[in-house]
Amino acid sequence: MPRCAASAASAIALKTPEPRRAHSIRGRLLGYLLLPLLLLVAAGFWIDHHTLVMPVYAAFDRSLSRTATEIAAHIEQQPDGQLKVRWPEPPGASRGFGRHPPPRLTWHGPSHRPPSPGFAAPSFAHHAPPPHFRPHETFLFRVSRADGSTIAGNADLVAAPIEHNNLGYRNADYHGTPVRAVSLRTTVAGEALLVTAAETMHWRDRVVHRLDTIIGLGDSLQLLLVLAISMLGITVALRPLRRLREQIASQSPEKLKPLPTAPIPGEVRPLVDSLNTLLMTVRDSAQSQQHFLTNAAHQLRTPLTGLKAQLEVLARENAGGPQQARIAALQGGIDRLAHTANQLLALARAEPSAHRASDFTPLALPELVGAVVSTLLDRSLVADVDLGADCQPAEVEGIHWLLHELLVNLVDNAIRHTPPGGQVTVRCGTTEGLAYLEVEDDGPGIPPDLRQRVRERFYHAGGNGQGSGLGLSIVEEIARTHRGRLLILDGSTGGARMRVEFPAAG
Amino acid sequence: MRILLVEDDSLVSDAITRGLSVEGYVVDAVATAEAAPARLAAAHYDLAIVDLGLPGMDGFDLVRRLRSEGNPLPLLIVTARDGLDDRVSALDLGADDYLTKPFALPELAARCRALIRRAGVAGSNELNVGALRIDLAGKRVLGAGGKTLDLTRREWSILECLSLHSGRVVSKDRLMQAIVGWEEEISGNAIEVHVSRLRSKLGADATVRSIRGLGYRLEDA
């Protein structure tokens, strides 16, 4: 049977597994964007740091070197030939500073006060702070000779190596406090001197830190903005894909339409084209399956009708004749063949994907029970089975001929398995929001361990060779088409109670 | 009684012709729908049996054409197709009954009988069920041997309703509606009482069968 085509159709429409979220295009795009963006921000930060922060750092250094120059300018030779640093008057009469900014010479914290006895500078610690005064900054200096002996200042301040322009800078450590030091090579009264000035780095650290923070914040904000815009862009750009997904999901397997290609972006177009090719293949095979069934039905049933009718005529003409038994055997065979052919066709037609939502109409189950019982009444009379009904109001959304087929199969099964003189009762009603159809018989019942096997195709319960072994498969298939299920239960008198439950209509 | 059979499969056509001939019908068989109208014009037929799947013009077209011409001939459709759609459209087009292949000859014969009888009722107002002759216009019923059965009005109404649907199950509700004009207040038990009295009056001429939970069916004895 070409069931695969319809199954493929139903697989597309019904059974698409939820793809893992890790593979979402949005996630991948963001992933691919995020790493380069982070690298870009890091590079930007590095460049900003070097173009904006380093010059600030250099300005601090230059300011420190000017202070060193200032100190060098105040080294004088005493009358006794000794060199000494002579500090100018307090800033009120600050002639000595000339065009240069006043040196930031302030002592804070007595612990930093160098113990050198020759140190003559402390007096300026009491000066009023100059305009450039930076609180909490500690200033150190040392004037030394080429041989390393200290003339003035902090003797344990280590000089920086001279690099060019007679100047040298270094980061040093002064009694555990990191300082920035500048050394200036100069000559006073013919003697080579090294003037070293140093300051603690609180202020410049703060300034640099603040600048770095501002730059970092700005760059991060930029990154976030870019990401947000990217997200928005990706969402907008992926909208056609979402529309496509909705269009595919809304397709019904028996009425597949090509997906529209007009508003689809070029990148998605090949996907849509392939999907359309696939959809049309599936639709064609579903249609050809239905055509096949229609043709098979006709090609099987017509000769069967002819054979059956011819045998009946033959049987009548030979009534009481020598061939009667053989003709009866032939008739039995033809009847079984006809029954099986009918059941196979019904099974193929019951395929859930072969029906449209519009095929389902509200049906009153009591009417269905009445029609089916009427159809099978003569058969039950022949089998000497008391066929009856017990109907309560119930309604389902269903396909009339399929439900008719379902109930015919259940009742037919029950009649086959009920001994002469027995009873078959067809019931319908509603319990707990579920509409049900039920057929109970007086037969031997179905043992619990066989209840799964009897649902299998071509399984024969009684082995009387009459049934096609497809009846319950048809019932199950039709129940599934109606979102119902088949229950095999115990009858009140030990027989089988076959119950099909449906979601109630409305 | 003369029947026109429109069926292209010779095996089926031959068997139906033989089977219905045994039942006393004269059967003329044609293999195409195109050939049918000429035959119908040439002779009087009581029924046409039309196969839906015919080469060329199909059974639907023939039914549509006959009905559009106002031909009242009873039409029985036989088809190898199943499904409600075909059934509904065939009946909507004006066919009187519908039989799915493969069928048993006795069933076909029974349907033919019922259709011809129904068509006859429209003209004569007289029904035959088993040994009963039911005169719908005179509201009386003759049993075997031609003697008039003495029925109450309620029993007559029940028999009338059952005989108009003879061979089919008639629900208790429907029977109640049929006699409610005679007696405004009626219970389910009352129906059973009337039916059982009717049954004893009919005797062996015809059977009123009780169908548990559904209703009653009038059958040939």
TrEMBL record, chain A:
<dbReference type="Pfam" id="PF02518">
    <property type="entry name" value="HATPase_c"/>
</dbReference>
<keyword id="KW-1133">Transmembrane helix</keyword>
<dbReference type="InterPro" id="IPR003661">
    <property type="entry name" value="HisK_dim/P_dom"/>
</dbReference>
<dbReference type="GO" id="GO:0000155">
    <property type="term" value="F:phosphorelay sensor kinase activity"/>
</dbReference>
<protein>
    <recommendedName>
        <fullName>histidine kinase</fullName>
        <ecNumber>2.7.13.3</ecNumber>
    </recommendedName>
</protein>
<feature type="transmembrane region" description="Helical">
    <location>
        <begin position="29"/>
        <end position="47"/>
    </location>
</feature>
<dbReference type="Pfam" id="PF00512">
    <property type="entry name" value="HisKA"/>
</dbReference>
<keyword id="KW-0472">Membrane</keyword>
<dbReference type="Pfam" id="PF08521">
    <property type="entry name" value="2CSK_N"/>
</dbReference>
<dbReference type="GO" id="GO:0005886">
    <property type="term" value="C:plasma membrane"/>
</dbReference>
<dbReference type="InterPro" id="IPR036890">
    <property type="entry name" value="HATPase_C_sf"/>
</dbReference>
<feature type="compositionally biased region" description="Low complexity">
    <location>
        <begin position="118"/>
        <end position="127"/>
    </location>
</feature>
<feature type="region of interest" description="Disordered">
    <location>
        <begin position="92"/>
        <end position="127"/>
    </location>
</feature>
<dbReference type="InterPro" id="IPR005467">
    <property type="entry name" value="His_kinase_dom"/>
</dbReference>
<keyword id="KW-0597">Phosphoprotein</keyword>
<dbReference type="InterPro" id="IPR013727">
    <property type="entry name" value="2CSK_N"/>
</dbReference>
<keyword id="KW-0812">Transmembrane</keyword>
<feature type="domain" description="Histidine kinase">
    <location>
        <begin position="295"/>
        <end position="506"/>
    </location>
</feature>
<dbReference type="InterPro" id="IPR004358">
    <property type="entry name" value="Sig_transdc_His_kin-like_C"/>
</dbReference>
<dbReference type="InterPro" id="IPR036097">
    <property type="entry name" value="HisK_dim/P_sf"/>
</dbReference>
<dbReference type="InterPro" id="IPR003594">
    <property type="entry name" value="HATPase_dom"/>
</dbReference>
<dbReference type="InterPro" id="IPR050428">
    <property type="entry name" value="TCS_sensor_his_kinase"/>
</dbReference>
From TrEMBL, chain B:
<dbReference type="InterPro" id="IPR039420">
    <property type="entry name" value="WalR-like"/>
</dbReference>
<protein>
    <submittedName>
        <fullName>DNA-binding response regulator, OmpR family, contains REC and winged-helix (WHTH) domain</fullName>
    </submittedName>
</protein>
<keyword id="KW-0238">DNA-binding</keyword>
<keyword id="KW-0597">Phosphoprotein</keyword>
<dbReference type="InterPro" id="IPR011006">
    <property type="entry name" value="CheY-like_superfamily"/>
</dbReference>
<dbReference type="InterPro" id="IPR001867">
    <property type="entry name" value="OmpR/PhoB-type_DNA-bd"/>
</dbReference>
<dbReference type="GO" id="GO:0006355">
    <property type="term" value="P:regulation of DNA-templated transcription"/>
</dbReference>
<dbReference type="InterPro" id="IPR036388">
    <property type="entry name" value="WH-like_DNA-bd_sf"/>
</dbReference>
<feature type="domain" description="OmpR/PhoB-type">
    <location>
        <begin position="124"/>
        <end position="220"/>
    </location>
</feature>
<feature type="DNA-binding region" description="OmpR/PhoB-type">
    <location>
        <begin position="124"/>
        <end position="220"/>
    </location>
</feature>
<dbReference type="Pfam" id="PF00486">
    <property type="entry name" value="Trans_reg_C"/>
</dbReference>
<dbReference type="Pfam" id="PF00072">
    <property type="entry name" value="Response_reg"/>
</dbReference>
<dbReference type="GO" id="GO:0005829">
    <property type="term" value="C:cytosol"/>
</dbReference>
<keyword id="KW-0804">Transcription</keyword>
<keyword id="KW-0902">Two-component regulatory system</keyword>
<dbReference type="GO" id="GO:0000976">
    <property type="term" value="F:transcription cis-regulatory region binding"/>
</dbReference>
<dbReference type="InterPro" id="IPR001789">
    <property type="entry name" value="Sig_transdc_resp-reg_receiver"/>
</dbReference>
<dbReference type="GO" id="GO:0032993">
    <property type="term" value="C:protein-DNA complex"/>
</dbReference>
<dbReference type="GO" id="GO:0000156">
    <property type="term" value="F:phosphorelay response regulator activity"/>
</dbReference>
<feature type="modified residue" description="4-aspartylphosphate">
    <location>
        <position position="51"/>
    </location>
</feature>
<feature type="domain" description="Response regulatory">
    <location>
        <begin position="2"/>
        <end position="116"/>
    </location>
</feature>
<keyword id="KW-0805">Transcription regulation</keyword>
